[in-house]
Every structure is written in C-alpha cells, then in structure tokens.
Amino acid sequence: PGFQDDNDESSPGWLTARLASNGQELWRKRLVMPPENGPVVGRLPGRSDPSVVQPCGYSGIGSSSAIYAFDALTGQEQWTFQGPKQEDSWQAGIEEGIFMRFTGHTSQPELVTPPWSAPLIDARGTVYVGSQNGYLYALRDDDMDGKVEGAEEVTYTNTHATTLGTSSPAIVPGMCLIAHANNVFAIGLPDQVPLSA
C-alpha cells in the first residue's frame, strides 16, 4: 500500500479501460491517489451504462482515501466518496489480533493492508466495501449529485478490523460477509436485497 508520505504529484494512480478483444485503450484517468485494490464493474442507480468503481488511498496515520465511480465506456466521473482518515497508529483490529495471528501462524502478526477492500456491487447498484477503519460501507449516489454523502447514501457497520488484501464482500441471501484481519464478519441484510438483476 501507499503511505501518506508518498502523497505528492509524483505518486498518482491511473485507471485505464481497454477493449477485451484487442487491448486497445478506451480511456485513461489520472487519480490523485493510487488505486489500492481492484475495481468492480456493474450498474449503479440511475445509470444505463455500466460503471467502474475504484477504491484509492494511502495507509498510515492521517492517510486519505476515497472511492470513485466512472462510466465504464467513457471514463466520465460519476461520483466520489471521501473515505475516513486512519486515526490510530494501527489499522482497526491489527493490534488486538497480533497474539492470535502469531500463535495461530495464520498470517503476519503485524501487517498493513490497503485502505479499502475490493468493492462489490449488488443488483440494486449498492456498492459494498470494507475499510481500514474497520467499517463495512454501503454506498449509493441516489440523488446523482456526484457526491456520496449523508445518512441516505452512506450506511455502515463496525466489523472492528481492517479488511485483508484483495478480498471483497460477498452477498448470500439475507447476509453480507467480509473477511477481515481477525476473522470473517457477517451482517444481516433485508430480504428484499436482490443478489442479481
């Protein structure tokens, strides 16, 4: 992962879309922060064409993070969610789980993860993504103003630990699961959340 000290003009990120058939570049966007996990492509609310959602940011105290949505065909920015900054020396759950990871030999006792998990888009266009602050977010730009903010568009639950590597949340009937630094966390979802369109 990138660290806050790297946040300067020489460390932007890039998101590039290419045709699968021949590799021809469709578009390329310069991001102010490095993409620190894989994107996801799907349909977002109020959009007829597919969108690509890309988490970006840095790890470390005071580090910035954001999630961007772009039109997958043109690269036009659709919305931004300004993520929380890391406030403590450790990402959520890392310090608490050191002994468990050390004695269980399951992973590095001390680790630094990307600021975001890989995202997931459900059939309604809600984006689910885990964060280094231990929260699992559900994001929607319902008013299509280009900013995902406020209680109507941002909901979250505390999983008490940062997510691991390139894993993304997973949805099964009535439940959302996410792997994090210390175990797998599950939250209940309303039955009306469809898994696919």
From TrEMBL:
SUPFAM superfamilies according to UniProt: Quinoprotein alcohol dehydrogenase-like
Name of the protein this chain belongs to: Uncharacterized protein
